[in-house]
Amino acid sequence: MSVKEEIEILRKELREHNYKYYVLAEPQISDYEFDMKLKALQELEEANPEFFDANSPTQRVGGGVTKNFETVAHAFRMYSLDNSYSKEEVLDWEKRIRKILGDVPLTFTCELKYDGASINLTYKSGELHRAVTRGDGVQGDDVTTNIRTIRSVPLRLNGNCPDIFEARGEIILPLEGFKKMNEERIEAGEDPYMNPRNTAAGSIKLQDSALVAERPLECLVYGLAAVKLPLISQYSMLEEARKWGFKVPVEARECNSVDEVMDFIELWDLKRHELPYETDGVVIKVNDLDQQEELGYTAKAPRWALAYKFQAEEATTKLVEITYQVGRTGAITPVANLEPVLLAGTTVKRASLHNADQIAKLDVRVGDTVFVEKGGEIIPKITKVDLTQRPSGSQQTQYITHCPECHTPLIRNEGEAQHFCPNEMGCPPQITGRIQHFISRKAMDIEGMGSETVVLLFNEGLITNYADLYSLTTAQIEPLERMAEKSAENLVQGVAASKEIPFERVLFALGIRYVGETVAKKLARAYGNIDALMNASFEELIQVDEIGDRIAQSVIQFFADERNREIVERLRSHGLQFSLSADQLANQTDTLKEKTFVVSGVFESISRNELKKLIEDNGGKVSSSISSKTSYVVAGANMGPSKKVKADDLGVPIITESEFLAMLKP
Ligand code: AMP
Ligand code: ZN
Questions:
Q1: Whose CA is nearest to atom 20 of ligand 1?
Q2: 327 in any annotated domain
Q3: Do residues 205 and 272 both lie within one domain?
Q4: Any atom of ligand 1 within 6 Å of the Cβ of 200
Q5: How many domains in the chain?
Q6: Which of 41-50, 138-147, 368-377, 558-567 has the lowest mean pLDDT?
Q7: What residues contact residue 583 under an 8 Å CB cut-off, 6+ apart?
Q8: Which ligand places an atom closest to the C-alpha of 197?
Q9: One of 113, 521, 595, 621 is an active-site residue; which one?
């Protein structure tokens, strides 16, 4: 077999497995086997650059950087959709159609309206040729490099597709992935993203495609455009597109009347919260493609389609007060305190106002009647003000200029939306926030101590930074309210026990801005000890995998502060781990990079904890519950039966102890 053939076979296999995993969600081989094949292909391609192919499965990881997206004209215009909000409006639409078509049989296809960013994918000879954003409908931005990294976008199609055509779809961020991205951001002291739609739209315009590759984006296809399609209906178009390899949601239905259309709408208005992604309505399309052609387009939208928008889960209430929260990094978040109101089944008393710009944009004022909405966000948001209800003499909201907790003048860095209190060392919520982060489960995991204890100890003047924890004595703690002898002892013991926590977690616990759990691990592994890290230059830091300018800058800034260095020295003198242990250093690899494991049951040759450590030392992640993100379940004897069912359901491969250990062999 020639090298070329070998490459082609691997590409074909990988394409099929990718399709089974990301489009059908029915993986047939383990992630490990997939990675082995991918690695083999990568090596062959590297050694034989003449066979480079931009649509090879190896290109999914991204790497290409686009400084300016080229503007490209669409071959077929991308239209917007007319909206409707009631059955009457749908009936009116049907009437308008009937007027044009006359008395002929009329059926519809109903699809969900996916809430993301539209994309136009051009295929030539079955290969992805170009991906362009909707833009103004006539022309958009060429974002091909980024779109190639989205696993559910087929790079090469199966079956009998036209030689040149376009697939129209929506790039979305499923809710679970969005939630996880936000958890990671919050953990790293960054502002959470506002909603999945904006984040999806922002993602496809990132300059670095490797960053896009890391985001759990998906592409849902809802239509095709070509000079001539060998198809008769919208519904068969969806079925055909699915056969060619596109991800086409299965919820779509053919309907014979407006009544059936309304049933579909009612059903999904109720069930939409069970979907893994956000939808803001239903798109009703005339089914017959000849009829579509006859109906044509208005200046803005097809006459043959109509969007039906679900009522946003919205309520109105009164804004009582705007308060300002100070986070552990000093970031100020304005919070709207509301008269309690029922919204989507829960009582809402507070809503996020995000930042000063948002307040100015809404021109929201105390005493206003406001609309509150719940979308994919973590807490509800205010969408607009009911100006007809504004009390006379109302005053425009003045954003605070000083920290509400320590009265230091606030600063706002260029390009950042958030105001900050710069008084890191003297601002109470920043001090307690940092200590709370330090003791938290994923950091130093100090037993016998909770968030309230931190506030109590701080208020009593016993601690002003986390190094102070290590000098606490039971005699100091016992007299405090609610601190019996036993819990004082537990606390001191818990603090002492934390001295064994490994370096990477100590590094995470320090609470350096943007240094989350994963970054801390990377840095710990790259530098081995705190001294090397403290002395690293900006240029050195950005050489480390996944460390960008912003993180590097933040690390430099943290250690440039004499006060931080002093605290580190005190922690060191108390015996905390500031370097990787010798065997940790000797045994670290990247073999399990980007893989997540769940460990269950009892093992023969090693203990559970040793197994977990092995995973982490080799660059893998350990998680406690099985999800679609789990790469493998490592099962010992007596694995939990519910875990087995869940793994089988999700198609997560279950491997044995020896299979796992074999993965680590070079
Ligand atoms: P709008 O932006 O509100 O005018 O709505 C039009 C957009 O809805 C299109 O550009 C598509 O990106 C998007 N859309 C989402 N789901 C569908 C669907 N099932 N059919 C057609 N368009 C859809
Ligand atoms: Zn402050």
A1: 222
A2: no
A3: yes
A4: no
A5: 5
A6: 368-377
A7: none
A8: 1
A9: 113
Please report, as a single letter, which amino acid is at residue 655: I
Least trusted range by pLDDT, from 74-88, 225-239, 284-298, 309-323: 309-323
Residue 350 · residue 335 · CB < 8 Å: yes
Ligand 1 near 284 CB (within 6 A): no
Verify whether ligand 1 is closer than 6 Å to residue 167 (CB atom): no
CA–CA distance, 93 with 78 (Å, rounded to integer): 21
Query: Which amino acid is present at 145?
Result: T
pLDDT tens readout for residues 94-112: 999 999 999 999 999 999 9
What is d(CA 534, CA 452) in angstroms, rounded to the nearest whole number? 32
pLDDT at 584: 65
Helix (H) or strand (E) segment spanning residue 243: helix 234-244
Per-residue pLDDT averaged across 157-185, rounded?
91
**Mean pLDDT score across all residues of the chain:** 90
CB of 39 within 8 A of CB of 31?
Answer: no
DSSP type of residue 444: T
Does 76 reside within a domain? no
Q: Which CATH number fits the domain that encloses residue 544?
A: 1.10.150.20
* Complete DSSP assignment for 23-52: IS----S-HHHHHHHHHHHHHHHHH-GGG-
Three-point CA angle 582, 593, 67, nearest 5°: 120
- d(Cα 63, Cα 577) in Å, to the nearest integer? 36
Predicted confidence at residue 583, as pLDDT, reads 65
Biggest alpha carbon distance in the chain? 91
Q: Which domain holds residue 634?
A: 596-663
- The rounded distance, in Å, linking the Cα atoms of 303 and 309 is 17
Task: Provide the whole-model pTM.
Answer: 0.62
Residue 317 has pLDDT above 70, yes or no: yes
- 113 given a catalytic annotation: yes
Q: Are residues 228 and 113 in the same domain?
A: yes
Burial class of residue 228 in the structure, from the number of CB atoms within 10 Å of its CB (0-12 exposed, 13-18 middle, 19+ buried): exposed
